[in-house]
Design brief:
- The chain is an alpha/beta fold.
- The structure holds zinc ion.
- The site of zinc ion (ZN) has 8 residues, from loops.
């Protein structure tokens, strides 16, 4: 019943109301169910709160060709704002490296954790997505409706694995970021793959789940992902989540997968 009400409101509430409701939703949910997470062992850089532990992701570990769950810790979800490890890595990066107030920011695939982060910092930003109703603009990342050199900071968090032409998307991101600006990118990567695996003949949700790890993923990235970033002309620095605050580190995913890696791309 609660799940149905949530889906209904997400579908029909006006976008502005929906965005404003996010902190209220977090507050109410945590007031009702947060008791078991009280404590100060772990820290969330998105909502700036501490907890005894993070929540465990409720997911069915179905069979894939890749054993994602061997590499991925599931007890990584913030019980307040819903952040994952990679969201906390980005929030930590923003705090340390980006003067957000003066920056023109574009956020793709805006998750609840980033809405919480930007609202608590009173930071203006533009969000874009092809599917998410909470985004300000519906946009195809392969053909963006923005001028060259328009943004100081762009976040592209787990988007490229859904996009047919990811090279075109990366070229677009490089086109619209200012010289000296930053595009922060994360994608699912399997370290056991030297080369990115994709196969356009895999189309059914079941087959994509088995081959790529999610029903709407079009590929699994391998260790050549950084080459793709270099190929479109980015200078790349990799931020490793294990270098962060010691209260964040214990709930990073394993080092072999993507969840603790943020690719900081500059032009
Ligand atoms: Zn949080």
């Amino acid at each position: 019943m609660i799940g149905f009400a949530k889906s209904f409101l997400k579908k029909y509430l006006p976008r502005k109301v929906l965005k404003k409701a996010v902190p209220l939703y977090a507050e109410i949910k945590y007031a009702l169910n947060g008791g078991e997470y009280k404590g100060a062992n772990v820290y969330c850089s998105c909502c700036d709160k501490s907890f005894g532990r993070f929540k465990t992701l409720d997911i069915d570990p179905l069979n894939h060709n890749y054993d994602f769950f061997k590499y991925t810790r599931l007890d990584v979800i913030c019980p307040y704002c819903g952040s994952w490890s990679r969201h906390r890595v980005l929030a930590d990066y923003l705090e340390k490296h980006i003067n957000t107030m003066d920056s023109k920011m574009l956020i793709f695939a805006i998750p609840r954790a980033y809405i919480t982060y930007f609202q608590r910092n009173k930071q203006k930003y533009l969000s874009a997505d092809y599917y998410n109703r909470m985004a300000d603009v519906k946009a195809d990342i392969q053909e963006l409706p923005y001028r060259d050199n328009e943004f100081d900071f762009i976040s592209c968090d787990h988007v490229l694995e859904h996009v047919p032409d990811d090279t075109k998307a990366l070229s677009e991101l490089r086109r619209i970021v200012k010289p000296g600006g930053v595009v922060a990118i994360s994608v699912p990567i399997m370290s056991c793959l030297k080369k990115t695996y994709e196969d356009g003949s895999v189309v059914s949700p079941e087959d994509r789940w088995r081959e790529f790890g999610q029903a709407d993923h079009l590929r699994v990235y391998g260790m050549d992902f950084i080459d793709k970033l270099h190929a479109v002309g980015f200078n790349v620095e990799i931020i490793d989540g294990f270098t962060l605050d010691e209260r964040i580190v214990p709930t990073m995913a394993a080092s072999e997968d993507d969840y603790n890696k943020l690719f900081i791309c500059k032009k």
